[in-house]
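ESCALATION

Customer reports they have been waiting on this structure for their group meeting. Please prioritize. Original submission:
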Amino acid sequence: MLLEELDIINQMYLYAVSKNGMPRDVSLAFAVELAEPMVEILVARKKLPANTRRQTLKECLEALLVEYDNVVFYKETSADSDGFLDKLKNNRVRIMHIKHNQKKEKCFDGAHCVLYLCKLSLLYRSIPLDLFDISACAYKGKLKMNAAALDAWAENL
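Update from on-call: job pushed to the front of the queue and completed.
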């Protein structure tokens, strides 16, 4: 039933994280774009407040990070979460609206696109677990371990 409800969201997620030859900034843009429909499902399932549905992309990303994450994006949200969310949004705008003159410092480079695609993948994997009523303590340790491995890899960028 959940797979049917997720519909195109699941297909786009699988496409974004697959090895498909698509540049990682494009994959990241697709993964960021999934935040809005994911919020719609979570609102419909009463996992997020009803007013969350009418938020901007950046606000949807923030709602997901607040509700579902305190380990994967810990470094990003404990430092400058607003700047981080702006860069995620700007990356998506640059790709989806084909903005050629966007300042590079307002977007992620290729390696950081890979990093945040992987981190969003971890976040998006935890949402169905919650929808299946699987306790977060059953998987939070693995999320934390994977996030730490990604952060360690990113320190060498």
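Sent to customer with the following note: The mean pLDDT is 87.
Escalation resolved.
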